[in-house]
């Protein structure tokens, strides 16, 4: 709350603080009210757009109410108090062995430190296992490195495998994989299929699913190559028409992705229910782009609710960036067929079968991009001695 200077002394009802500034040109800031106090000491203004404090209406000072301070629940504060809390998977017996060994080594090296306090000084991750190194904060004692996982003799040179990692890999291999979402690289599916055939027999088949993001990129490239009519897009020069065409094709990509995502959310991934809606949605979206935005948009999942400020023409960033409004595009019958074919790359029965789980490979690609950034293929590491 901000209280400006005045010639007389005033006190706010819920505060014992004297709100008279020391100098006539000063303003005084009081602590924010809590949500409970805010409801007690405020009311809506006449225009219903702000709040006023009735206790200060006859006061010579100027009072400005700040938004109330939201106080979260105590249990939530307690849970979020320590942001460094994390879980680790460790071997129970090795953990007990580490504690006993830690205490003995500390007594031998620091006999004068009677009440030690240990904390992690370094931890190294080895798959799902961890290697810990601890120190005493009351003395200079630093422990050896403890492996909190059991190892497996593989008979191969190099570091030994952790049993927890080996068990996890075995579980993954023994899990039957029916579908694999790829970005166009068939080698990953081939490798998975060979691994599954070794476990479940030569007749096992891994089905390829299309990546939703890459399908949208293919949709955009096909739209750029599409030959729309000359009068389809407004504009004086060819460059202006091409810019509007690019924005329109990008809008088709984003809108079809949003429609399919909304359908999956509404029907909880039920492909039978989704497939019944797709033909009508494609027709309604084509009509919407043709300037016939009406009840067909309002009562179906086209991301357009009709009207003026609730229509897709008003909400779309790509269309608004070029000043396009309902009726700005003048598609011919051939143009409508082209728009319909672009939409069916995402909104059709065949596309639904290829993207039945609506999944993508973005997480995998982010890891691959990080690896290629720090370990590029063109960098040759020195030979190991």
TrEMBL record:
Residues 1-22 are annotated as: Disordered. It comes from Mytilus edulis. Pfam families: Mutator. This is Mutator-like transposase domain-containing protein. InterPro entries: Mutator_transp_dom (IPR049012). Transmembrane segments: none annotated. Residues 1-19 have a biased composition (Polar residues). Residues 87-177, 179-295 form the Mutator-like transposase domain. It comes from the Eukaryota.
């Amino acid at each position: 709350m901000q209280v400006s200077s005045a010639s007389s002394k005033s006190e706010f009802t819920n505060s014992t603080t004297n709100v008279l500034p020391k100098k006539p040109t000063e303003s005084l800031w009081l602590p924010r009210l809590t949500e409970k106090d805010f409801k007690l000491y405020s009311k809506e203004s006449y225009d219903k757009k702000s709040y006023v404090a009735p206790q200060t209406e006859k006061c010579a000072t100027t009072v400005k109410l700040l938004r109330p301070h939201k106080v979260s629940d105590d249990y939530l504060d307690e849970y979020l108090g320590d942001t460094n809390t994390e879980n680790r998977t460790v071997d129970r017996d090795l953990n007990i062995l580490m504690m006993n060994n830690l205490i003995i080594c500390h007594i031998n090296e620091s006999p004068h430190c009677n009440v030690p306090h240990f904390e992690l000084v370094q931890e190294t991750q080895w798959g799902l296992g961890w290697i810990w190194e601890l120190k005493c904060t009351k003395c200079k004692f630093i422990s050896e490195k403890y492996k909190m996982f059991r190892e497996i003799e593989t008979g191969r040179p190099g570091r030994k495998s952790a049993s927890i990692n080996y068990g996890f890999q075995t579980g993954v291999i023994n899990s039957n994989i029916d579908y694999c979402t790829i970005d166009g690289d068939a080698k990953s599916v081939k490798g998975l299929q060979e691994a599954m055939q070794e476990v479940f027999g030569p007749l096992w088949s891994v089905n390829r699913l299309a990546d939703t993001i890459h399908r949208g990129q293919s949709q955009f490239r096909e739209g750029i190559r599409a030959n729309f009519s000359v009068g389809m897009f407004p504009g004086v020069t060819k460059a202006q028409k091409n810019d509007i065409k690019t924005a329109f094709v990008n809008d088709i990509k984003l809108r079809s992705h949003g429609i399919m995502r909304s359908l999956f959310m509404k029907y909880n991934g039920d492909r039978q229910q989704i497939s019944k809606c797709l033909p009508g949605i494609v027709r309604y979206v084509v009509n919407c782009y043709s300037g016939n935005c009406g009840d067909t948009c309002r009562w179906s999942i086209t991301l357009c609710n009709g009207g003026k400020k609730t229509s897709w023409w008003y909400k779309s960033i790509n269309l608004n960036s070029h000043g396009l409004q309902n009726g700005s595009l003048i598609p011919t019958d051939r143009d409508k067929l082209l728009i319909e074919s672009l939409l069916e790359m995402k909104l059709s029965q065949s596309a639904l079968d290829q993207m039945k789980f609506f999944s993508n490979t973005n997480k995998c690609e982010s890891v691959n991009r990080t690896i290629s950034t720090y370990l590029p293929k063109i960098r040759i590491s020195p030979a190991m001695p």
